Recover the amino acids of this structure.
C-alpha cells in the first residue's frame, strides 16, 4: 500500500488566508483538504498518512530552513512518495511545493510530485528537478490535477517507465531520451508536413525556441547630455581573450575599459567569433566598435559622454535563454552606471 | 532581428560600421554617418520594432 505524506499551505489546510501566511509548519494525521481527494483517487491502493501544513510566507521567506523543517516532519512517517499542492498559479505556494519536492527527493531519496499552472514562476525554477503536473490556473481544476498527480504517483512508486511529458501531463524536464522509431526522420517529417497542409493537428518533435518581443524604451530626450555605451556581439576582445569568451554559443560577456581611449588600436584586440570573417575588424576594430567616431561626437558635445567601458560577447549559435540572461545583466550594469542609450553593433 | 527595437542597417557583416574598400578618411565619414543615424534612432519614439534608415 502506498504511503503518502501531503504538503499543503495554510489556505488549503483550512486554517486561514493571507492573515495566516506566516504560520510555521505543523503535521496532522491523515488527509486534510485536497488530500482527501487524493485519498479518494487512490482508494485502497494507498493512504495519505499525514499532512504537513505551512504558511506560504513562512516558507517563501526562509526557503532553506523551512525545507529542512518540513523534511524532518515528513521523515518519521516513512512515506513512499510525497505530494505537494497542487499550487495552481500561486507563486509563493509554488515555491514551497517545488522546494519541498526537491528536498524530499535529495534528502529522503523518495519520489515527489506537485502541480502548477504554466505561468507560475516556480515552473521554470523547478521543472528540471521535480515532476510538476500541468494544471489550470485555479482550484477549479483540482479534480483533474488530482487525477494526473495520483496516476503519476502510482507509476513512480511502482518504478514503472515514466512516459513523455505530453503523455503523463507534466512540464518537460529538459531531458532527452533516445527512442527507436519504425519510420525514418524523412518519413516522419513528411507525415507532419502532410498533416499541416491538411490543416490537421500535428506536433513538432523538437519545439522551436520562443523569442519574446521587447517593448522599445522611450526615446532619449537630450542626447547632448546623455552617456552612450557601446555593446557588440561581434566577439571583439582584448588580445589574449582574458575572459575566454567562446567562439560560438557564448556563455559569457566581457567589459573592456576604453577610458581616455581615442580610437581602438588593432594591436590591442582580437576577435573570438567563428561566424564571420573577422579580418577587416582585426585590421581596424573601430569598424565594429566605433570608438573613434563616438569620441569625436563626445568632443563636439553632440553626445554627453562615451561610456568608459564597452561590452562584448559573441553572437553565433547562441542559446536564446542564455543570451537573454546576459543581456539582462549587461543592461542592469549599464543602467546602474548612468548610461542612457546603447549602440549595439552586430555582425 | 528577433527582439531588437531600433534597428539600423549596417554596412556589411564583416564591417558593420566601416568599409574596408574606402580610404580611412572616407571610411570615418561613413562610420560617422551611420553612428549619427543611430543617435537619431535613439532620440525617436517608437511603439514597436522598426527598421530605421
Amino acid at each position: 500500500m502506498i504511503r503518502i505524506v501531503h504538503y499543503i499551505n495554510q489556505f488549503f489546510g483550512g486554517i486561514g488566508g493571507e492573515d495566516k501566511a506566516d504560520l510555521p509548519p505543523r503535521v496532522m494525521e491523515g488527509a486534510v483538504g485536497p488530500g482527501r481527494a487524493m485519498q479518494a483517487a487512490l482508494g485502497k491502493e494507498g493512504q495519505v498518512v499525514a499532512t504537513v501544513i505551512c504558511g506560504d510566507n513562512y516558507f517563501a521567506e526562509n526557503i532553506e530552513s523551512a525545507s529542512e523543517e518540513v523534511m524532518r516532519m515528513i521523515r518519521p512517517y516513512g512515506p513512499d512518495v510525497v505530494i505537494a499542492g497542487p499550487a495552481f498559479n500561486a507563486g509563493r505556494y509554488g515555491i514551497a511545493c517545488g522546494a519541498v519536492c526537491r528536498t524530499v527527493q535529495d534528502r529522503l531519496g523518495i519520489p515527489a510530485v506537485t502541480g502548477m499552472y504554466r505561468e507560475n514562476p516556480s515552473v521554470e525554477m523547478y521543472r528540471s528537478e521535480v515532476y510538476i503536473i500541468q494544471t489550470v490556473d485555479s482550484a477549479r481544476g483540482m479534480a483533474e490535477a488530482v487525477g494526473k498527480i495520483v496516476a503519476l504517483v502510482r507509476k513512480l512508486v511502482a518504478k514503472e517507465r515514466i512516459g513523455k511529458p505530453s503523455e503523463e501531463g507534466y512540464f518537460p524536464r529538459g531531458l532527452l531520451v533516445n527512442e527507436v522509431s519504425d519510420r525514418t526522420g524523412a518519413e516522419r517529417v513528411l507525415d507532419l508536413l502532410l498533416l499541416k497542409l491538411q490543416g490537421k493537428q500535428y506536433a513538432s518533435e523538437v519545439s522551436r525556441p520562443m523569442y519574446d518581443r521587447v517593448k522599445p524604451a522611450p526615446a532619449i530626450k537630450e542626447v547632448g547630455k546623455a552617456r552612450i555605451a557601446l555593446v557588440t556581439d561581434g566577439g571583439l576582445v582584448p588580445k589574449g581573450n582574458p575572459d575566454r569568451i567562446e567562439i560560438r554559443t557564448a556563455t559569457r560577456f566581457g567589459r573592456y575599459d576604453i577610458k581616455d581611449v581615442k580610437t581602438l588600436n588593432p594591436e590591442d584586440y582580437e576577435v573570438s567569433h567563428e561566424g564571420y570573417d573577422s579580418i577587416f575588424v582585426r585590421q581596424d576594430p573601430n569598424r565594429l566598435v566605433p570608438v573613434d567616431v563616438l569620441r569625436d561626437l563626445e568632443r563636439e558635445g553632440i553626445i554627453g559622454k562615451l561610456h568608459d567601458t564597452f561590452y562584448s560577447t559573441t553572437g553565433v549559435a547562441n542559446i536564446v535563454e542564455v543570451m537573454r540572461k546576459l543581456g539582462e545583466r549587461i543592461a542592469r550594469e549599464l543602467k546602474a552606471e548612468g548610461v542612457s542609450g546603447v549602440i549595439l553593433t552586430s555582425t | 532581428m528577433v527582439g531588437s527595437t531600433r534597428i539600423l542597417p549596417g554596412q556589411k557583416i564583416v564591417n558593420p560600421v566601416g568599409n574596408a574598400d574606402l580610404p580611412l578618411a572616407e571610411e570615418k565619414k561613413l562610420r560617422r554617418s551611420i553612428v549619427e543615424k543611430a543617435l537619431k534612432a535613439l532620440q525617436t519614439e517608437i511603439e514597436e520594432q522598426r527598421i530605421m534608415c
